[in-house]
Amino acid sequence: MCVCVCVCVFDDRAWYPLGRIIGGTIYPGLMVTSAAIYHILNWLHISIDVRNVCVFLAPLFSSFTTIVTYHLAKELKSPGAGLVAAVMIAIVPGYISRSVAGSYDNEGIAIFCMLLTYYMWIKAVKTGTLFWSTMAALAYFYMVSSWGGYVFLINIIPLHVLTLMITGRFSHRVYVAYSSLYVIGTILSMQISFVGFQPVSTSEHMGAFGVFGLCQIHAFVDYVRSHLNKNQFDTLFRAVISTIAAAGVLTLAVLAALGKIAPWTGRFYSLLDPSYAKNNIPIIASVSEHQPTAWSSFYFDLQMLTFMFPVGLYFCFSNLTDENIFIILYGVLSIYFAGVMGVMVRLMLVLAPVMCILSGIAVSSLLSTYMKQIDDVKVEKKKQRFEGNYFMRSEIATLFVCVMSVFLVMYTLHCTWVTSEAYSSPSIVLSARGHDGSRIIFDDFREAYYWLRHNTPEDAKVMSWWDYGYQITAMANRTILVDNNTWNNTHISRVGQAMASSEDKAYQIMRELDVDYVLVIFGGLTGYSSDDINKFLWMVRIGGSTDKGTHIKEHDYYTPAGEFRVDKEGSPTLLNCLIFGQVYTEGGKPPGYDRVRNVEIGNKDFELDVLEEAYTTEHWIVRIYKVKDLPNRGA
Q1: What is the pLDDT of residues 598-623, one digit of tens each?
Q2: Which H, E and C letters describe 9-21, residue by residue?
Q3: Prediction pTM value
Q4: pLDDT, tens digit, for every residue of 429-479?
Q5: How far apart are CA 58 and CA 36, in angstroms?
Q6: DSSP β-ladder status, 593-594 and 439-442
Q7: How far apart (Å, rounded) are the C-alpha atoms in residues 112 and 510?
Q8: What is the residue-wise DSSP string for 440-490?
Q9: Domains of the chain
Q10: How is the protein disposed in the membrane (predicted)?
Q11: Is the peptide bond before 560 cis (omega within 30 degrees of 0)?
């Protein structure tokens, strides 16, 4: 029922004048889960507001993630490894950034779904039963309904099966597990309207389909081998394999040429080529979570896990089982895409769980080894009082256990500090430290949205960059042109063109889009670096990426030396575009100093003709302008 309602809802307050079909542009898992919990609690006569369900959903599922991490690591190594991994993932900043209270996003439940699918897959491989394979398919369906990152999952599991084939470990258990998972999981995933026929028509899913076909061929070959002698089998095998390979390649080529198999999406290309999105699809590259991961972020979000990760890989390699091969592949691919390629910050969410699991295996194995040395020495001390080297063994083992305990305590302290400083404050309410160490609160966003809600007509249309669309819709209850869903690149491009154009050209675009108010973010007074000037080049790139934006050229906004500057050396095109005037109007009065760019602005005399200032918040972070009507009489 919830899914049907979600699919049919049309939002006419977003993406004006297009609107948005909710079910066709989102993954429904998050909302269906929230609604289910809400109705179950009310059925149990536990009265709770649906907003509180949404606020505490991510912390609830993070506790589920801790439990499933324990069971996954237990299947891979031992209960001790599971316990250490569970403790690590419970506080690791790389995951807690999306599991704090109030973080109502797909990733809040998706990481649990991903690890649950992995756990069910490991159980299916180890047992070879249809029950665990079906459970893995159901977990995969939940994952598909929750997050687009399911593409990583449906590629790593086939890669695991392919690796088992290459290494000669393929068995009837693996055949039953993967065949059942692929068939049931694919059919179920196609029931999600946002996914539709993608599992059988897009390049991202063709690897899984190809491995499924290889499984059937492998099983058929094993069956034929058992009924023919070696010479007959070799002759038949060469003929059949050559025919099937040629037919398969030809079929894929024809389907691709006819457009039946869609090419890889921009996000998938970005995994293989980090520069692809920036050069070809700037809307993808402009998302902060799709920015390359800084190396410092690994230590900041993972701390000692970065050092224990290779140790965990070593212990998995030393005991190479089917399930350990899977966790090795998961770990290596995650660290490759998140680190070596430096592709996306968001992949830290995929990396953090496997870092905890492998680190849990490493810490558990090391502590078990050295604790055993201490216990063995006590026994030897009773048996041999005059022989042996038990004294040094005991000292070294004790020292190592103490050092590891110190590292674990430091990890706990680091995670607590990072969580309190970086991930515990709402992004909509900013804070900073004063000169005396006191905390200063900047509540400009809520102030601006409150003003919009109470001082503008209910049908007013607000133009802003897409980052603030959801907030304006929810907190100001006003119609917006673009929002964080970013489903329509052309519409976002039009907004970028308005921001990057001269005032006259921008006014034509705003009249075309029926804009009443324009909202911009300015951090030059307070030092808030995530303002619209620092995002402006993305507006330029996205604005110039469509046919109507051919007049927008990125190089026009740079100085002859190739620098992006807002001082007197800045490009005339930049110093006279709409957004420059919006953020710096009245701010150019003496001294006109921008604390973010650390320069004195270059155009202090910018006067807006087609916009009038409607409201500026206390700290000048949010500025709202009203679009003037056309004059009744011509000039």
Answers
A1: 888 877 777 888 899 999 999 999 99
A2: CEECCCCCCCCEE
A3: 0.84
A4: 888 877 777 788 899 999 999 999 999 999 999 999 998 999 999 899 999
A5: 15
A6: unpaired
A7: 43
A8: EEE-HHHHHHHHHHHHS-TT-EEE--GGGHHHIIIII--EES--TT---HH
A9: 49-361 (no CATH), 441-627 (3.40.50.12610)
A10: Multi-pass membrane protein
A11: no
